[in-house]
Design goal:
The protein has 13 helices and 18 strands. With 436 residues, it is α/β, with parallel strands linked by helices. It has a six-stranded parallel β-sheet, sandwiched between helices. A five-stranded mixed β-sheet has the order 17-14-15-16-18, with no helix packed on it. The chain has a four-stranded mixed β-sheet with strand order 7-8-9-10.
């Protein structure tokens, strides 16, 4: 049993790294702690507990996690330091050995953090590890977070059964699982009641929703679209093989789902896709993009790409570059490959140097800038619906259109978290948004 008196008015600091799913889960943990009497520490105030929710998608992510632990330990030397998330699941001993770390909680244990804190209150032993075999975990922990810009992130799915050769996510997050459509819709309704005007559906493999409840992602989309009121939905990311024509056509006539797709490509070479054990070809990917643009000509399409994986020769990269150049997309999210312990890709002998990885990354970032600029240019003069956000940049405020164009106007507090019809003008001075 939790002793609430231990936590009343205790100060807590949160630090979250990585994906939007992590932020949604941190938000859920924060609500748990708030209900038990915790309050967030103000800037400069000493915390009683520090909670770090980690990422481990690359070596750089691991490094950032260690930096965050060291920084918070310096700022809050007397606090109980709790580290959880993917890095904690994959390398708990490494984290437990770091100075100042009191508790290391695996990916599933993070949701029972209060129980561990209750038992830790009178125990000064450092580096205590609690981590179950994530591959045996079947339950799904729902969560929803509100960022500082009016947008909510709704966790609809967790885990992955794909086992791509470069990726540790299945061993950090476990098997694909989800709540029921009914429960997920109820969580969305709660967010709307709290003032949400836009909800982003997040997951590790979002389109795999329904695997553990014998439902489908498309059925979830239809159920959410039937909700009343002024609410927007976005799909954070969906695998090409799970993005059906039926779903694209539904979004095109949807009341609530925005014409915005984020599709991981990872490589524009079929040979590299085979090395990665991806479940599609470049021909399939190109057809998905063509279908979207045929039905929704103004849709925003973001694409993930990894450069420098083992086996990616110069010829394969050039094939990929030319293929990506040919795609009618809006933006690239470029990642440099990082060797991950326990992955099959380490068995491939051909290694791309770090210098070459950086070169390829820079080349694709340049291509992304060109495509984003062209997409924005194509939207100048068009009418749109902008959801204005709360943050202020000098005397300006920003918001996003249905198709994820960043818009800017003179700040008006009364417009925060409202949707306004606008005509998109020319670029702002920094060329980061279109003026209205």
């Amino acid at each position: 049993m939790i002793d609430n008196s231990l936590f009343n008015n205790k100060k807590v600091v949160f630090h979250t790294l990585g994906c939007k799913l992590n932020f949604a889960e941190t938000s859920a943990i924060g609500k748990q702690l708030s209900n038990e009497g915790f309050v967030k520490a103000r800037p400069g105030e000493q915390a009683d507990v520090c909670i770090i929710n980690t990422c481990s998608v690359t070596d750089t992510a691991d490094h950032k996690c260690r930096q965050a632990i060291n920084r918070l330990n310096r700022l809050h030397p007397d606090a109980i330091m709790v580290v959880t998330g993917c890095y904690a699941q994959l390398k708990p001993d490494e984290i437990a050995s770091l100075e100042g770390v009191d508790l290391v909680l695996g990916a599933n244990e993070k949701f029972s953090l209060l129980d561990y804190l209750n038992n830790k209150a009178d125990d000064s032993k450092n580096g205590e590890i609690h981590r179950a075999d994530i591959l045996k975990v079947k339950e799904f922990k729902p969560s929803c977070s509100r960022d500082d810009r009016t947008r909510f992130f709704l966790k609809v799915q967790d885990g992955c059964d794909y086992y791509c050769t470069y990726c540790t996510i299945p061993i950090a997050r476990g098997h694909s699982r989800n709540a029921s459509i009914a429960d997920t819709v109820e969580t969305a309704k709660q967010a709307i009641a709290e003032g949400a005007k836009e909800i982003v559906l997040t997951g590790i493999n979002t389109g795999d929703f329904g695997k553990s409840t014998h439902e489908t992602f498309f059925d979830l989309v239809k159920a959410l679209d039937a909700l009343p009121g002024e609410i927007r939905f976005r799909i954070s990311s969906i695998e090409p093989n799970l993005l059906t024509d039926e779903l694209i056509e539904f979004v095109a006539q949807s009341r609530h789902f925005m014409p915005h797709f984020h599709i991981p490509l990872q490589s524009g070479s079929n040979d590299v896709l085979r090395l990665m054990k991806r479940r599609y070809t470049v021909e399939m990917f190109a057809e998905k993009v063509h279908t979207i643009k045929r039905i929704l000509s103004d849709a925003f399409i973001g694409v993930d790409v990894i450069v420098g994986v083992r086996g990616e020769t110069n010829e394969y990269f050039e094939q990929a570059y030319q293929f990506i150049t040919s795609l009618d997309i809006s933006q690239l999210h470029v990642f440099s490959y990082s060797e991950r312990e326990g992955t099959k890709m380490l068995e491939i002998e051909h290694i791309v140097s770090n210098v070459e990885r950086k070169h390829r990354s820079e080349k694709l970032h340049g291509l992304s800038d060109e495509k984003t600029h062209a997409f924005y240019e194509s939207q100048i003069g068009k009418t749109a619906q902008v959801l204005w956000e709360s943050r202020q940049n000098g005397d300006k405020m920003v918001g996003f259109t249905q198709n994820y164009i960043r818009a800017e106007r003179t700040y008006d507090k009364s417009l925060v978290n409202t949707i306004q019809p606008v005509s998109l003008g020319n670029w702002n001075e920094e060329k980061t948004a279109l003026m209205v």
